[in-house]
Amino acid sequence: MAEPKTNELMEKIVSLCKRRGFIYQSSEIYGGINGFWDYGPLGTELKRNVKYLWWMDMTRMRDDVVGLEATIIMAPEIWRASGHVDTFADMMQTCKSCKKLVRADQVWDILVEQSWVQSLASIADVATQSFDGEALMRWADGKGKRLVPNLALVRNPRVTLSWLSERSKSSKQAPLSAKEFYQYLATEQLAATGLITPCPYCGGELTAPRPFNLMFETWAGPLQSEENKVYLRPETAQAIFVQFKNVLETSYQKVPFGIAQIGKAFRNEITPRNFTFRSREFEQMELEFFIKPDEVIEAIAGSVVKPGESHPGEPQPNWGWEAWHKYWVEERIRFYEGIGLPRTTLVEYWQKPDELAHYARATVDILFKFPFSKRNEKGELMGEELEGIAARSDFDLSQHERFSGKPMGVFDEELRTAWGKLDEAKKKELWQRYYEARLKYLTKTAKSDETPDQIDKAAREDADGLAKGQYIPHVIEPSAGVDRLILALISNAYHEDQMPDAKGNMETRVVMKFHPRVAPVKAGIMPLLKNKPELVKKALEIRDTLRPHMNIFYDDAGAIGRRYRRQDEAGTPFCVTVDFETLEGAKEGPLAGQKDTVTLRYRDDGKQERVKIEDLLSLLMAKIR
Ligand code: GAP
């Protein structure tokens, strides 16, 4: 059947999420609160499964990653050291008329979604610059007044249209772009103000962009004073950096090793949008993986290996940051595929040098092709960020060392021994490279009272540390958003197909094709009839056998076909039905004549098979792992 259009698809997904209890608007009975979402019974199970699988993959199935669970509110100095107080900001514009705030880089994306723009499109073709002035005047006086009261075209149509007509008649200038066209409609006094960018919501004038810090502030203690000001963490990562030494000393780990954390993060997003994709409260799953600097690897292993195009395989002692970075990119893609996001829905986007954070050596964003993603010229979905995997150098630990005054470096006996065996030329070369990297970092982050001599001395001391086996670890950071992943899994799972109803007539069914590993409910357990005590007894026995091992749903209400449909919409991969053949013996097939068998129905194709009750647990466990 034809694929639904993207907006239509998003509407269906949002409606299913509410109808089936995946996601609700927070505080809905009070009109909701923008940018906050609650997970219902099915959403909660889905989320728990995703976090559990991430935790298993990232920590328990590995020897080199341990966990951390830190507080949401931490010492505010942490956010000064990390740069969040000074630079964690989005550029924002305010409407001078309706006072709404809009993220500067989203003005046009939001504008094209507005009903006034869509209504204008029917009387003015922006692409060909053809419009009927009289029709625009009538629109301004009618629909325009209602939909976009502060647009210059609505407030003063004659003057505004005169600028637009003059400009579009000019043969000397290039044709107007779509943006310019709307700017003309928003500009009443061209000579005095220049072109104005309209507020997407009311058409009023937007202020020039200015930075808006995204951190939520509150106070720790009874006094709402500057000293008591604290922040809700905007990422979970910083707690990992500040507890690095504690974890190192108490976990028997040695670099390379990682610390993983799952937890809430808060960002006061200016324009939360696209359902849960950009929320103000969300969860992150972050790993900070600490590695030796390349100079240290070279001293110990003789050389640093360059990664190829594919997965570099099992970690090796001669891996520098590039091999580790490539490894984590590949591991993360493997994870997503393993929970049911096909490779074709993912995009590996390598940030360009001018997009990189100043401390990052490389960052790969893993994008998922959401239904609301923009399309390229070929009409293909381009994808939105699910996760970023950044090679963050030694920036974070160095910052916390400088701001806290506590050493963040490690001692490495292997390095000290290896250094002693290097020839003088190699020592000099590695010393120089390490010194230059430290000098660059220290110069960039120098405080106003630090002199070049002091900075140079500090960089030399750091490089001298190599001979003593000391260095500050570098970091590779795979950082994923739980809520975005849930939305990706829901978008990917949503399908509509045709299935026969009880009378054999084809009907449209909505089916959530979750991978069994993430599916909120693994199996629906159903007695064919609820008024037959023998059937109910067996079904309850099966429920009690399976329940300790997986989330099941016991359903005895209504016709069996309707019960299957309910489970299809919930994304339950298997249904187990206890019927008369269970009691009397299977009528046909390999188990013909045998009692204590059940029907196992598969969600995706509706196929059914008979299996022995005693085999059910192992059979299902093999499928949901
Ligand atoms: N420690 C690095 C860091 O926080 P980020 O790219 O800002 O990097 C990491 O965030 C991930 O967190 C993103 O890839 C995304 O999945 C998720 N995320 C960030 N902001 C979000 C928001 N407002 N709503 C939902 N998820 C968000």
Briefly say what this structure is.
The chain has 24 helices and 25 strands. Strand 21, helix 21 and strand 22 form a beta-alpha-beta unit. Bound molecules: glycyl-adenosine-5'-phosphate.
Question: Could you list some keywords that capture this structure?
Answer:
25 strands; 4 domains; 625 residues; flat; 40% helix; 7-stranded mixed sheet; alpha+beta
The coarse silhouette is flat
Structural class: alpha+beta
Quote the beta fraction.
15-25%
Give the strand order, joined by hyphens, for the main sheet. Answer: 3-11-12-18-15-14-13
What is the radius of gyration?
A: 30 Å
**Architecture of the largest domain, CATH level 2?**
2-Layer Sandwich
Our measurement of the CA-to-CA distance between the termini, rounded to an integer number of angstroms, reads 31 Å
What is the count of DSSP helices, taking H or I runs of 4+ residues?
Answer: 24
What do the pLDDT scores average to?
95
What is the H level of CATH, i.e. the homologous superfamily of the largest domain? Bira Bifunctional Protein, Domain 2
Largest sheet: 7 strands, mixed
Fraction of residues in helix: 25-40%
